[in-house]
Design goal:
single chain, alpha+beta, eight-stranded mixed β-sheet, five-stranded mixed β-barrel, 19 helices, 32% helix
Length: 606
């Protein structure tokens, strides 16, 4: 310490001391992480945001009795000299492991009641307990480190965007409800009775309006709100995204802007994992054909192939019959290098039946230069070997089959591909691998309402423009139309969707007309956007990678709640703050709201 008055709580933090401070008198404040009694010596591990320092007091020292009475998670201040640790006493796994502080003075700053969950160690505790006492949960090493890492990742994002001449602008939180996308969170207006604001599902319209206002390269770490059910990779309510929009850009310009940002982030925060530098561009249709998903995990080298011709008119009656039944039907092969044993094939078949509720998973495995199993026996040696040669397989390998209409079985086949890659350890877990999925369909068939509807973002530019929309006369032709829409995927996780936007009013009217939205709907719900388009709109496009998912990947966590400071539970409840909650009649009257609750909700409210 210097001659000036010492700081009330600390001269150093708990991650700061090393051999260069040996002999100094220091002051530390923090939480008691744990207490250990070693033959009369009391060791206190003191923890703060920055790290942990071992402190020690002997039985004949004045503060020993005080130290005996403290407990875990009490907040204390410790004064004393820094002493070097020698030999086996040095803890090489701890930043401060070369020293300890001898406790000359100890003061209790606050006490803790008995803990509802432990801080020391990483025990698996019920989620509801963890979320109710999230402030305690956040003291645990792993999740504390995740949240700190999240902050650093976001800071790096901002720096990388600014370095590319993007500027950060804030968009409104209270806005108008939109008919497309997920459910909105609504906010009643006090001064406009019967009317509601909506929290933005994304700043989509605003960022496009920013481009129309003459700004050029926008970004924002944007909060987004969607009334959706929880998933492992999606919070039920709110999330953040790196929102980006650019003027006078092509699809390639967007790719060139975002690739170095993502590549740099994953190299900086990936803890030494390999980061593949290439970002292959895979058309949507090809992604489903090869990987059974528009979110393919390219760490897995397996690519599926159509092998229908080997079964057409052949001896395996089930597959031949499926092919004869409908010209759209096909047989897809899922190669399984090194999986050539009956035991593995039977396990995969059992997984398909039990976990996937499928009839089964037909297979061939190869040994001694020929194929084995019921399928090989039925189609004969010549077809079996031709199939093997097409797939580039050899002895010790296997292949599984999915049959029917690909639109019905592709996703199951994709999950089978993922399982084969994982179980056979073909998937390289020690790397990050990106890809772009491009050429998304502009429209899809809405089976429930028996109509054409938008596949993704309704503001996307159709490939071919107005001419393509006008020339497509049948449902089949409309469903074949592609849009300038794209996703960025990493390790099988979709990080973002993006698009080149439709900046021409006549194309927007036509696109919405095809999807069954009349001019009145368009002008009512998107009037601001339409007005802006009519006063000179630049070609523009953008993307919005999910911050939470990026952090989840970089922290190696399977659940987004492990990288979110104050998440909700699976039922969209904030157990810490008690939200959502009922409000009093006075507030409801101010908002001109009368409740009309279902019976179950009435009972809960009472």
């Amino acid at each position: 310490m210097t001659d000036k008055e010492p700081h009330k709580y600390r001269s150093h933090n708990c991650g700061q001391l090393g051999r260069e401070q040996v002999g100094e008198q220091v002051r530390l404040s923090g939480w008691v992480h744990r207490i250990r009694d070693h033959g009369g010596l009391l060791f206190i591990d003191l923890r703060d945001h920055y790290g942990l320092t071992q402190c020690v007091v002997e039985p004949d020292e004045t503060e020993f009795s005080k130290a005996e009475n403290i407990h875990a998670e009490w907040v204390v201040r410790i004064d004393g000299p820094v002493v070097a640790r020698e030999g086996e006493a040095v803890n090489k796994d701890l930043a401060t492991g070369a020293i300890e502080v001898r406790i000359a003075k100890l003061e209790v700053l606050s006490k803790s009641e008995e803990l509802p969950l432990p801080i020391f160690g990483e025990p698996d505790y019920p989620e509801d307990t963890r979320l109710k006492y999230r402030f305690l949960d956040l003291r645990r090493d792993t999740i504390h480190a995740n949240i700190v890492k999240r902050s650093k990742i976001i800071s790096s994002m901002r720096n990388r965007m600014v370095q590319q001449d993007f500027m950060e602008y804030q968009t409104p939180i209270l806005t108008a409800s939109s008919p497309e996308g997920a459910r909105d969170f609504l906010v009643p207006s006090r001064v406009h009775p019967g009317k509601f604001y909506a929290l933005p599902q994304a700043p989509q319209q605003f960022k496009q309006l920013i481009m129309m206002a003459g700004f050029d390269r926008y970004f924002q770490i944007a909060p987004c709100f969607r009334d959706e059910d929880a998933r492992a990779d999606r919070s039920p309510g709110e999330f953040y995204q790196l929102d980006i929009e650019m003027s006078f850009c092509t699809q390639e310009d967007v790719f060139e802007a975002i690739e170095p940002v993502l590549l740099g982030l994953f190299e900086e925060f990936g803890d030494g994992k390999k980061v593949a530098k290439d970002f292959p561009k895979i058309p949507f249709d090809e992604a489903f054909r090869k990987y059974g998903s528009d979110k393919p995990d390219l760490r897995n080298p397996i690519e599926m192939e159509d092998v229908s011709e080997h079964f057409r008119g052949g001896g395996f009656g089930i597959f031949a019959g499926i092919l004869d039944k409908d010209e759209k039907n096909a047989i897809w092969a899922i190669p399984a290098p090194t999986g050539g044993s009956r035991a593995f094939c039977d396990r995969m078949n059992g997984w398909a039946q039990k976990d996937e509720k499928q009839p089964g998973l037909a297979y061939i495995f190869f040994k001694e230069g020929k194929g084995s199993g019921p399928v090989a026996k039925n189609i004969g040696e010549e077809r079996t070997l031709a199939l093997r040669d097409q797939l580039g397989l050899k002895d010790g390998d296997a292949v599984f089959f999915a049959a029917g209409n690909p639109k019905d079985f592709a996703e199951f086949a994709g999950r089978a591909r993922n399982r084969v890659g994982t179980v056979l350890k073909l998937t390289d877990e020690d790397q990050f691998k990106f890809c772009w999925i491009v050429d998304f369909p502009m429209y899809e068939w809405d089976e429930e309402n028996k109509k054409i509807d938008f596949s993704h973002n309704p503001f996307s530019m159709p490939q071919g423009g107005l001419e393509a929309l006008t020339n497509a006369k049948t449902d089949e032709e409309l469903l074949d139309l592609k849009a300038y829409q794209y996703d960025i995927v990493c390790n099988g996780i979709e990080l973002s969707s993006g698009a080149i936007r439709n900046h021409l009013p006549e194309i927007m009217y036509k696109a919405f007309e095809i999807a069954g939205y009349g001019k009145d709907v368009l002008e009512d719900k998107f009037g601001g956007m339409l007005r802006a388009l009519q006063f000179g709109a630049p070609p523009h496009g953008g993307i919005a990678p999910g911050v939470d998912r990026i952090v989840m990947l970089l922290c190696g966590e399977p659940n987004i709640r492990e990288v979110t400071m104050f998440p909700m539970n699976q039922q969209a409840e904030d157990l810490l703050m008690g939200a959502p909650d009922t409000v009093g009649n006075e507030q409801l009257r101010e908002l001109h709201i009368r409740l009309n609750l279902p019976k179950t909700a009435k009972k809960d409210a009472d």
